[in-house]
């Protein structure tokens, strides 16, 4: 689970860092562009004010991914026992969880853009 959370956290950190750097650069006055260290300022702002939002969003994604992997494990166990009905039910649930995960990733990415 920690691997999933760490992976989702790194992806989220990259998304919010890009969004923050772009928005900081865009709203910088014309005469200051090129003189302000946009990426460094963005890193400091994220680490000081927004790291909790990144951690929470990545935690939600990691929980959903963990549930998907548990269902995959249960599907393997059911197929080993030749329980076809349970295999199909678990495949259906995995598909629903995959769709839910994709929706959450979309919402998280847009939330990170709004935070930045």
Beta strand %: under 5%
Question: Alpha-carbon distance between the termini?
Answer: 27 Å
Number of helices: 3
Low-confidence stretches: none
Radius of gyration: 20 Å
In round numbers, the mean pLDDT is 86
Shape: elongated
> How are helices and strands ordered from N to C?
HHH
Structural class, by secondary structure, is mainly alpha
User: Could you tell me the number of beta strands?
Assistant: 0
Tell me about the biggest sheet? none
Oligomer: single chain
In helices, the fraction of residues equals: over 70%
Structure, explained:
With 116 residues, the protein is mainly α. It contains 3 helices and no strands. It starts with a helix and ends with a helix.
Strand-helix topology:
Elements: H1 2-26, H2 38-80, H3 84-115
Helix pairs in contact: 1-2, 1-3, 2-3
What's the short version?
By secondary structure, the chain is mostly helical. The chain has three helices and no strands.
What structural keywords apply?
single chain, 116 residues, mainly alpha, elongated
């Amino acid at each position: 689970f920690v691997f999933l959370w760490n992976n989702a956290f790194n992806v989220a950190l990259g998304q919010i860092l890009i969004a923050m750097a772009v928005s900081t650069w865009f709203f910088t006055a014309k005469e200051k562009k090129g003189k302000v260290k946009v990426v460094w300022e963005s890193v400091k702002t994220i680490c000081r004010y927004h790291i909790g939002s990144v951690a929470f969003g990545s935690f939600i994604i990691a929980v959903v991914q963990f549930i998907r992997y548990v269902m995959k494990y249960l599907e393997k166990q059911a197929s080993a026992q030749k329980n076809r009905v349970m295999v199909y039910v678990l495949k259906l649930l995995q598909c629903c969880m995959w769709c839910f995960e994709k929706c959450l990733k979309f919402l998280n990415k847009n939330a990170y853009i709004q935070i930045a």
